[in-house]
Amino acid sequence: MSESWLDVVKWDERGLVPVVAQEQGSGRVLMVAWMNRDALTETVRTGQAVYWSRSRGRLWRKGEESGHVQIVRDIRLDCDSDVILVSVEQIGGIACHTGRHSCFFRQLQGDQWVTVDPVIKSESEIYHRDAK
Questions:
Q1: Distances in Å between the alpha carbon of 76 and those of 62, 98, 125, 131?
Q2: What is the pTM of this model?
Q3: Could you tell me the pLDDT band of residue 123, with boundaries at 50, 70 and 90?
């Protein structure tokens, strides 16, 4: 498979592009993340969302720790070629590391950000981190 499709993407100075993950069916935006060429290539190859973790400095396979995998159903590039939209099936119903369905769980009400979506599962239940 030719990689010319990757060259159409306008990668930023760090070699990254923002990615919006949208839930297939509902159309709800679940999260925004980043991809580099390797992440996008791996996503296409496996059919599961793979992102670039800026904090870890490595590829991040969505759900590798939590089990909340994203099965990619469609990939689109915006008109300026600088944002990717992935339509995903969110396994387990949780996209956010806080244990919520979406990372966009706060709503501006007047002059305050109000949490409007419940925690489905606590972070400690999701990640099973050992106390050190």
A1: 18, 27, 34, 41
A2: 0.89
A3: confident
Euclidean distance between CA atoms 68 and 38, whole angstroms: 21
16's CB contacts (< 8 A; 6+ apart) are 34, 35, 36, 52, 54
Residue type, 72: V
- Minimal CA–CA distance to 38: which of 52, 24, 21? 52
Q: What confidence score (pLDDT) does residue 1 get? A: 58
Structure confidence at residue 30 (pLDDT): 97
CB 59 within 8 A of CB 50: yes
Tokens 């839930």 belong to: 23
Mean pLDDT within 104-120: 95
The domains of the chain are located at: 4-127
Residue 129 pLDDT grade (very low, low, confident, very high; cuts 50, 70, 90) = low
Class of domain 4-127: alpha beta
Query: Which residues have CB under 8 Å from 105's CB, separation 6+?
Result: 96, 98, 115, 116, 117
